[in-house]
Amino acid sequence: MKIGIVGAGMVGSAAAFSLVMRGVASRIVLVDLDDARARAEAEDIAHAIPFASPARIEAGGYGDLAGASIVILACGVGQKPGETRLQLLARNAEVFRVVVGEVRSASPDAILLVASNPVDIMTQVTLSISGLPAGRVIGSGTILDTARFRWLLSRHLGIAPKSVHGYVLGEHGDSEVLCWSGARAGTVPADSAAEQVGRPITNEVRQEIDDGVRRAAYRIIEGKGATWYGIGAGLSRIAAAIGGDEGAILTVSTVSDVLGVSDVACSLPRVVGANGVTQELLPDLSPAEAEGLEASAAMLKDQVGTLSL
Ligand code: ADP
């Protein structure tokens, strides 16, 4: 499978590296305004190929995205001093207007995988510019927050993260909702599993895990300036689900109606395969979780309303 990546910064490059190490792509093309950066990243990552599956990775222009099954959008501009979040958003929306246009003409059949932040809003912007069906414009959304939740819960329980399930829904950001009511170890509700292994989920444990998920990005940014490995792995997980037509359930962002909020991009558990997102599965939520999810969706909808789409 050929995969294009626009934006060979930390996130785009980490995604490319993860795609190579997982053997998801046979060909990867990195496109960046900074061509020297794209070429250097491609060469560096290419040196990992002898330790992974056969693949080709190179830097290129938009024309080289022809025939790509997926194009990951990880490009964007950083916040200028004194700039508000909404001004930054407007500038990034302008970048996307150009980039998405170029990508659509070069590879009209590609599924677009949006990684740039604020990811839910950029997903909605991309859908609007691209004119694609909603299921073919997928934001990485809370795939990473869900991974953080499963990892922290698995550490507490002493059970492998692959056997621990729990979703983070809504915005990829401060208003996201950790769905404790549906958390499971195997098929056993997390609270019961925790009692059985002698590590009850007290209010304090719950608070610590909630904070560990919600504040993770802030802590990492404080220490190293940005986050990239986790999201890079999440992007390659989504690409693998598309490439393998897996029908995997992943918490990703697409535009749909979320509880009482119409036409908004935020994360729900969704079925991902060769045609992108084909189904969404709203889990049973506690009243507080449902309220939190609706508030998160409403907040995103308000923010999108400030942009002229
Ligand atoms: P992140 O940590 O999100 O990856 P970076 O700043 O490291 O952020 O990467 C963003 C990348 O996007 C940079 O390499 C930048 O050159 C690239 N970029 C910005 N605008 C465009 C654009 N219009 N087209 C292609 N690439 C772009």
UniProtKB/TrEMBL annotation:
Lactate/malate dehydrogenase C-terminal domain segment(s): 142-304
Keyword NAD listed: yes
Lineage: Bacteria, Pseudomonadati, Pseudomonadota, Alphaproteobacteria, Rhodobacterales
Residues at which beta-D-fructose 1,6-bisphosphate binds: 150, 165
GO CC list: cytoplasm
Any single biological process term in GO: lactate metabolic process
Described purpose of this protein according to its UniProt entry: Catalyzes the conversion of lactate to pyruvate. Catalyzes the reversible oxidation of malate to oxaloacetate.
Biochemical pathway: Fermentation; pyruvate fermentation to lactate; (S)-lactate from pyruvate: step 1/1
Keyword hit for Transferase: no
Sequence positions bearing Phosphotyrosine: 218
Reactions performed catalytically: (S)-lactate + NAD(+) = pyruvate + NADH + H(+)
Enzyme class, spelled out: oxidoreductase
PROSITE patterns (UniProt xref): L_LDH
Record domain Lactate/malate dehydrogenase N-terminal: where: 1-139
Subunit structure: Homotetramer.
Family statement: Belongs to the LDH/MDH superfamily. LDH family.
InterPro entries in the cross-refs: L-lactate/malate_DH (IPR001557), L-lactate_DH (IPR011304), L-lactate_DH_AS (IPR018177), Lactate/malate_DH_C (IPR022383), Lactate/malate_DH_N (IPR001236), Lactate_DH/Glyco_Ohase_4_C (IPR015955), NAD(P)-bd_dom_sf (IPR036291)
NCBIfam families: L-LDH-NAD
Superkingdom of this protein's organism: Bacteria
Residues that, per the record, bind substrate: 79, 85, 117-120, 145-148, 227
Subcellular localization(s) per the UniProt record: Cytoplasm
Protein name as annotated: L-lactate dehydrogenase
Catalytic residue positions: 172 (proton acceptor)
PANTHER family according to UniProt: L-2-HYDROXYCARBOXYLATE DEHYDROGENASE (NAD(P)(+)) (PTHR43128), L-LACTATE DEHYDROGENASE (PTHR43128:SF16)
GO function terms (MF aspect): L-lactate dehydrogenase (NAD+) activity
Positions that bind NAD(+): 7-12, 32, 37, 62, 76-77, 92, 115-117, 140
Keywords carried by this UniProt record: Allosteric enzyme, Cytoplasm, NAD, Oxidoreductase, Phosphoprotein
